Amino acid sequence: MIALGIEGTAWSLSVGVVNENDVIALLNDPYQPKEGGIHPREASQHHSERMAPLLSRLFDKVERDSIDVIAFSQGPGMGPCLRVVATAARLLSVKLKKPLVGVNHCLAHVEVGRWKTRAKRPVVLYVSGGNSQVIARRGNRYRVFGETLDIGIGNALDKLARYMGLKHPGGPKIEKLAENGKKYHPLPYVVKGMDFSFSGMVTAAQKLYDSGVSPEDVAYSFQETAFAILTEVTERALAYLGLNEVLLVGGVAANRRLQEMLRVMCDDRGARFYTPPKELAGDNGAMIAYTGLLMYKHGYVTPVEKSYVRPDFRIEDVEVRWD
Ligand code: ATP
Ligand code: FE2
Fold first, then answer.
1. Region of poorest pLDDT, from 36-50, 79-93, 156-170, 183-197
2. Interior CA angle at 294 toward 230 and 131, to 5°?
3. Is residue 268 part of a domain?
4. Which pLDDT value is given to residue 33?
5. Less Cβ around it within 10 Å: N or C end of the chain?
6. Is there a domain that residue 257 lies in?
7. pLDDT tens-digit profile of 190-243?
8. pLDDT at position 123 over 80
9. Cis peptide before 76 (omega within 30 of 0)
10. Ligand 1 mean position to 278 CA, how many Å?
């Protein structure tokens, strides 16, 4: 069986085709703001201009008739962007006469991670621009055991980077700077139960920068503090749930310092650490295609009248019918 997936919940526009075993094609055309952060309307404008050319490039690589199901990211995300994606998916579904499956974006991050690593029943740390959650399967749902109370870790990194004059996306630039950091400056470490918060830490880091601390030391202090929070909550979820696998997904999964901290924690506990290849860890069309395929095989179809966008779609809302 072959599925086509469209992702475009925020800045990334990506289309992918997969079968049960592998990614057959994956094409990206991300929106990059000229300055500042992401403007939902500009991003959706970008998606609607680039969608058709991107899909026709995809159909140069993959036979249209070979596709069995059309999957699209239904939410969570920015309303205007989601509407472009849903419209394109509906059109394709009508044109190719193939069923439509609306996919939860967070679930797609988790399932593509399980697909492309050996993780079976992991505690998932999902860290991206808009999201930061600790997730695990309980029965036929994924549950969020801890999450950010304000902004996602990726947005926090991007915000701090922008303040220090660096362009979007800031995460990779902060990572580079942090490698040359020497002195740790304490920052607010906010964990409440299993939830956490980053916005106070961003403000405090901006103040450090204003007071003349080097960008390298600011970046280093920020990463050490924020990633310690994420590692602590992930470890507590492992202990509480009696699990022994950690799966790191989302755009921030590319960060080597975060990977290292989680790996050390896992080694200490005799747990295993997994993360998928970078191109499948961040937002991508293949994860939507794969999850759509999985859902379709388990009886899910989204009728057109139910294909409305769901900006606040939660992973708990989806019944998981597969192993
Ligand atoms: P979502 O819709 O799930 O919130 P997203 O739109 O933020 O996803 P992703 O590709 O999952 O998209 O994540 C992008 C984020 O990842 C950006 O905030 C970016 O700065 C961050 N990022 C990318 N590479 C790194 C890195 N090496 N270190 C830290 N952060 C990174
Ligand atoms: Fe994402």
1. 36-50
2. 25
3. yes
4. 80
5. C
6. yes
7. 999 999 999 999 999 999 999 999 999 999 999 999 999 999 999 999 999 999
8. yes
9. yes
10. 11
**What pLDDT sits at residue 35?**
72
Report CA 178 to chain centroid distance, whole Å: 22
3-state secondary structure 50-69: HHHHHHHHHHHHCCHHHCCE
Residue 114 lies in a domain: no
Same domain? For 12 and 41 the reply is: yes
Do 86 and 193 fall within a single domain? no
The one-letter amino acid at 236? R
Model confidence at 311, pLDDT cuts 50, 70, 90, reads: very high
Structural domain boundaries, residue 161:
119-275
221 CB near ligand 1 (under 6 Å): no
Q: Same structural domain for residues 81 and 225?
A: no
- Testing ligand 1's pocket by substitution, the residue of 81, 128, 160 carrying the most ligand atoms inside 8 A of its CB is 128
Give the ligand whose atoms come closest to the C-alpha of residue 170. 1
Q: Tell whether 323 is covered by a domain.
A: no
Per-residue confidence (pLDDT) for residue 32, from 0 to 100: 85
Q: How far is CA 308 from the centre of its chain?
A: 21
Helix/strand/coil percent split, the chain, to 5: 50, 20, 35
